[in-house]
Amino acid sequence: MAGSKTEVPQGTLDMLVLRTLQHLGPTHGWGIARRIEQVAEDALKMNQGTLYPALVRLEQRGWIKSAWGVSDHNRRARFYQITARGSKQLQVEEERWDRIAGIIARIRQPFPEEGAP
Amino acid sequence: MAGSKTEVPQGTLDMLVLRTLQHLGPTHGWGIARRIEQVAEDALKMNQGTLYPALVRLEQRGWIKSAWGVSDHNRRARFYQITARGSKQLQVEEERWDRIAGIIARIRQPFPEEGAP
DNA sequence: GATTTTCCTGTTGACATTCTACAGGAGTGG
DNA sequence: CCACTCCTGTAGAATGTCAACAGGAAAATC
C-alpha cells in the first residue's frame, strides 16, 4: 500500500530536460534519461512513460526541436535540441525553482527577523 | 490563455504546511496562509482553494489534527496541530526535497567529474 | 544463422494535486 | 445598517506523473 509518491515534483522534469539539453547539445531521449540518472546516481529513476510525453510537450511548445538521426550505437534515434525560446524558458523555470527553494529554506528556519523595527 | 503554471510544485504544499505548524503550534488555515505569504514576501500566493483541501488531506492521513476554537480576532476558526506521525512525515518530505534539490543543483553544473580515469 | 541482449521510441489509463472561481457566515467599525 | 476584515469551505477543469505494456532494429553471443 502506501507507496510511491511522485519522484519528481510536477514541473521539475521540464527544467531537468532543458538543462540537460543545454549542456549536452542534441541528444536522444534515452541519452537524456541515462544522463540524468547518472548524475543522480541512485537517487532518481527516470520513467520512459514520463519522459517521452514530456519531450512531446516541450516540442509542442517550441522549447525544443527534434530530428531523426543515428545514435552512437547505430540505431535510429530522435535527437532533441534546445531552442532559443527553450533557453529562455529554462531561465524562467530555474528562477522559479530558486524562488521556491528560497522560500522553503526560509520557512524551515524558526523565525526570520520579522518586523525589525 | 497560456497563463499560470502552478505556483507550488506538487507535494510541496504539504511540506510547507507541516513545517509551519511545527514552528507555530496550533494555527488555523487562514493563519497558515498568512504566515507562509509573509515569509515568502511577494514571491508566493496561497490559494484558499488549494490550502483547505490540503488540510483535509493531511488530517485524513493522520499528519495533523484539528479542533474548533476562537481566533485572536474572536472568530470561529479551526486550529490545526501537527501530530507525531506528521513530524515523521515532515522529515521524510524534507529529505526528499533535499535529495531532489541536490540532484537539480548537480544537473545545473556543466560536468561533474565523470569517469575520473 | 538463430537466439538473446541492448538500445531506443512510444502509448494507455489511473491517480494525485493544484488552480480558478465561487459562496457564505460571523464579528467589527463607521 | 453597511462595508470590511476574518475565516471556512466546495466544484470543475487542467496538468503532469506513474506503472505497465508494446514493438522494432542493431549488436553480441552461441
Describe this structure in words.
2 copies of one chain form a homodimer. Chain A contains 4 helices and 3 strands. With 117 residues, the first copy, chain A, is α+β, with helices and mostly antiparallel strands. The first copy, chain A, has a 3-stranded antiparallel beta sheet with strand order 1-3-2. In chain A, strand 2 and strand 3 form a beta hairpin. At the A-B interface, helix 1, helix 2 and helix 4 of A face helix 1, helix 2 and helix 4 of B. Chain A binds a DNA duplex (30 and 30 nucleotides) through helix 2, helix 3 and strand 3.
Query: Can you give the helix content of chain A as a percent range?
Result: 40-55%
- Gyration radius of chain A (Cα, Å) is 18 Å
Report the order of strands and helices of chain A. HEHHEEH
Strands ordered across the widest β-sheet of chain A: 1-3-2
Strand count, sense and barrel status of the largest sheet of chain A are:
3 strands, antiparallel
Mean pLDDT of chain A: 90
Low-confidence runs of chain A? none
How many strand segments of chain A?
3
Greatest chain-chain contact: A-B, 34 and 34 residues
Number of helices of chain A: 4
Total discrete domains of chain A: 1
Ends of chain A: how far apart?
Answer: 51 Å
CATH topology of chain A: Arc Repressor Mutant, subunit A
What percentage of amino acids of chain A are in beta strands? 5-15%
CATH class of chain A: Mainly Alpha
CATH architecture tag of chain A? Orthogonal Bundle
